[in-house]
Structure formats: structure tokens, C-alpha cells
Amino acid sequence: MSGSCMRLHFLSLILLCCVSHSTSFFTFKVDSSSYVACGPHQTQALTEFMNEFDSSHCNLSDPLNGVWCDNSTGAVTKLRLSNCLSGTLKPNSSLFRLHHLRYLFLSGNNFTSSTLPFEFGNLNRLEILNLCYNGFVGQVPSSFNNLSLLSYLELSQNELTGSFPLIRNLTKLSVLSLLNNHFSGTLDPNSCSLFELHHLRYLDLGSNNFSSSLPSEFGNLSRLEVLSLSANDFFGKVPPTISNLTSLSELYLQNNQLTGSFPLVQNLTMLVVLNLGGNHFSGTIPSSLTTMPFLSYLDLRVNDFTGSIEFPNSSTPSRLEYLYLGNNHFEGKIIEPISKLINLTHLDLSFLNTSYPVDFRLFSSLKSLMHLDLSGNSISPASLGSTSDIPTDLEILLLRGCGIKEFPNILKNLEKLENIDISGNIIKGKVPEWLWKLPRLNTVFLSNNSFNGFEGPVDVLVNSSVKTLFLEQNYFEGAIPLLPLFITDFSALDNRFTGSIPLSVCNYRSLMLLRLPYNKLTGPIPQCLSNLTFVNLRKNNLEGSIPDTFYKSSSLRSLDVGYNRLTGKLPRSLQNCSSLEFLVVDHNRIKDKFPFSGSSLYQI
């Protein structure tokens, strides 16, 4: 599920509900004269409420934040203050004097360590309540059961605990999100009020600690369009009553402990998204999946599915765009039927445990493919040499641990390639010069091979668009190469690089991660460590002292220079590094104590 407070297609529901011809809008100002249409008592309550918090980050020009008052009564009917307030929401807050509120949006504020006041139950005219991303702790008070007019309740992304909230009286509820909290316990239909909310269209209980089998009563929530139970501890089989949810368009059950055969979803003809990844489902995949009229996203990763994959012939091509089958136990030549899914843009076939090598030529029909993961499979060597059969729209290609012996020439014509991972193979020799000329290349993983250098001139990497480059555990030797101008992350752990660390690393303004441990580097440490965030120079032959050039507000969080030949004392400017969490200087010739007297770096 997305980390956002609510999926975008439900925002239209909010906007439609919030339109009223009998209200006026006024942006917040502490000056009470701005509440022209609000009654005097309401104006006073609003002003006092604002003064309860640090509101210095409020953007008064933001049209989404503000107060709406009824033109005839002067009562506040809608209040929206998002990403704005900092402080504690107290039970005696003036907010709870606004008894005519119908719509209340307080998302993205810093109410950290505040509990949800019982007094929310006094706002019994509320129809929409959004409290996501606020840092609320504790349990949902039983007074929420008084909010019988609520159609929308958003409590996601907090630190709330306890069992499923007591909201039995919220029979008009259409949208309920408890995503990413710490709710726990079972969903016992005899005690849980969830299954009495028959008007629910959107239900998200993802990323909590619920632990039980899935009650068959889920099938009674027949109006559901989106159901997410992901990342909990649900176990057992998916009840067959799930097939009653014929309005369902999105079903998220990933990352639980669910077992049994493939759930009965064939009747869910409106289904667009189905995510069953990270469970213990077994058996075969029904061939009818690809004929479901709207299904475009199917994630079955990390399960125990077996058998072959067969798709029925159909005059209408499948709508599948996202297909994730990695980490299962399929048998047979599964690529051939997949090659018929011509609308695919994302395909994960990693670690399939099949004995048949993957032939790239079978992907030639997938003209729209942008993301392909074949990691952990055997690749047909002949198919790696041709540049004519691979989809040219590929942006991400992952070939980790495929037993590849030669650099794959299929990459040469991939003008849109952004991310390539060929780590964990057995490729020898030099990295070809043409790789760095791919115009959109951003991320390159070459680790765990037998590379020993780069084709081309010494500055072959400089004009590349690459920002992340990992060369770990190879046989690269000689001087560290001149890096791409906009590099952010460079790791060359466990190679045979020699010479000093080039001073040019100080010129890469975007560089944050520099990892060069287990090489044969000599000379001094560059003066610019303060510009970096993560630095590891362990197990080299570096000499001199650690530069005393750490400035205030340095972003340095981790520094490891252990097992070198460094001397002198620790630089006193280290105490300027308020973000420093990890410091290792063992097995050098440094004679000093740490933390320094008066230093604030006791968190290390």
C-alpha cells in the first residue's frame, strides 16, 4: 500500500463531500478580525486553538488550509490544518468547543506523544475526520463510537495501540484506514465491531500487528472496493466468502502467514490489483487470471506456488501490466506463455528454481516492458549476445546471480536503461566503454564478479550520467578511477586499488557515500570528509592524521578508518558533527580519548 494518507481516487469523495453553498472560507490568521463570517464565540475558540500550538510553519497562503463557517449561523463547519502545527493536543483544547464541525482535517502535524482525547466524541456532527501522520499514541477512545455520522475515518501513520477500535455505531462509515500503527489482537467476529460496518467501501488495516485467521464475515462487507490486510500476522486459509466481494477492485494480502491454495477470486470481475506476495500459498495458479477483464497488477512473489503456467487463448489480450512471480517453485518453460502478455511493463521472474534457462529472445514481443528482474535464474548465453530481441524500452534490468560469464551485449542498445544489476556473476575482464555512454544510466551494480579494470581512457566514467556505482568484491587494480561528475554513492569494497585517494573526491558535490575498505590505498585522507555522509576507509594503508576540517552542520553520520596507519590525535572538530552515529578508529596509532571533554557526541 502507498504510504500516503489515502489513495488518490478517494480524494474525489472528500472533495465532493466538502462542497457547500452555505459556507464561506477564510484562511487562518491569529488576528480574530479575519473570521468575518464566524460567530464571536467560534472566532474566540479558533484563535485560542491556534495559540495552543507552534503554528509558525503554517502557510497562510495555502488554499487547502483554513476554516469554513456557515454564513447564516456563523458556526465553524470545516477546519483544515495540515503539516502545520506542533505541540500537544490536550483534552481541554478549544478545538472541542467547535461542536458544529462536520469536516476536520488535522493530518501531518507534530502531535507526538499526544493521546487521542476522549473529547473527540463530543464532535458528534463530524462526517469526515482525518488525523493521519500525527504521532498519536495510545488507544482509540471509546467515545469515537459517538461519531455516528462519520463516513470517513483516517487514523493511519500514527503510533496507536490496542485492539480494533470500538466503532460499532459508525454505521455510515465508508472509508476506514488504520494503516501503519500498532493495533493488535484478533478480528473475532463475536467481539470486533468491524463486521457491522456494512457501508465500508475502503478498508486498510495494513502494517499493524493483528493476528488471527481471516473471518468468513469479511464476505459480508459486500460494498468493499479496496481491502488491505497487508503486513500483519494473519494466518490460515483465505475464506471462500472473499468471492462475495464482487465490487472489489484492489485486494492486498501480502506479507502475512496465509496458507492454502490460490484464493477464490475469479468471481471478482472488477479486480484491478491483487497482491498475495510474501505468504505461504501453494499449488498452481489458475489460468483464468489473465482473462479477468480489468486485472492489471498481480503480485505472487515469495510463496510456494508450483506447476507450470498456462494462459488460455483469448481474442482479447490480457490487461496485465505488472506481474511479479519471483521466489516460487514453478516448473516447465514458463516464459513462453508469459510472452503472450503483451501489455506487461513490469515483470519479476527472479529465483524461480526452474531447471530451464531463460532465453531473452522470448521477451521480444513485450514491447512495453520497462522493468525486468531475472535474478537467480540461469540465462541462455546465446540470448545475451544479441541486441535485436530485447525490449528497447527497458529502464531497469536485474540479472543478479545468473551465472553470466561475459558482459551482456544486449545492454548496448538500451537507450532508456537507468538501472542495471549484474552483480554475483562470474564475468571477467574489463567493463566495456560503451556502457558509460548509455544516456539515462543512473545506477550500476557490478559487485561480486571478476572485473579487473575499465576499457577506454582514464576519464571514461567522467561524463557518464551514473549516480550510484558499486564495484564491490572484484579484482579492480591500479588507481581509483575518475568518477562521474554527479556521483552520489560509490563503493569499491574488497578490490586491489592502489595509490592515494584522489583529491578529486572533494569536487563531487553530490557525493554522500564513499566506501573503499579492504583495498591497498596509501597516502593521506582527503580534507573533505565533512562533506560526506557515510565514509568507510577501513583496512588500507592510509597514513597521517584524520583531517581536522569538520565544520558545523556537517552531514557526516558514519566514519570508519580502522586498520590503517593513522597517527596523531582525533580532530577536535569532530564535535561539530552533530549527526555522527558511528565512529571507528581501531588498530591505528592514534593516542587520544573520546568523547572529548565537554563534547556532545555521547550518542555514538
TrEMBL record:
Family annotation (PANTHER family): DNA DAMAGE-REPAIR/TOLERATION PROTEIN DRT100, L DOMAIN-LIKE PROTEIN
Keywords: Cell membrane, Glycoprotein, Leucine-rich repeat, Membrane, Receptor, Repeat, Signal, Transmembrane, Transmembrane helix
Domain Disease resistance R13L4/SHOC-2-like LRR: 79-181, 193-279
Lineage: Eukaryota, Viridiplantae, Streptophyta, Embryophyta, Tracheophyta
Stored SMART domains: LRR_SD22, LRR_TYP
Subcellular location: Cell membrane
Membrane topology, as annotated: Single-pass type I membrane protein
GO BP: detection of stimulus
Family: Belongs to the RLP family.
Matches recorded under Pfam families: LRR_1 (PF00560), LRR_14 (PF23598), LRR_8 (PF13855)
Major localisation: membrane
Secretion signal, residue range per the UniProt entry: 1-24
Identification of the protein by name: (rape) hypothetical protein
One Gene Ontology cellular component: plasma membrane
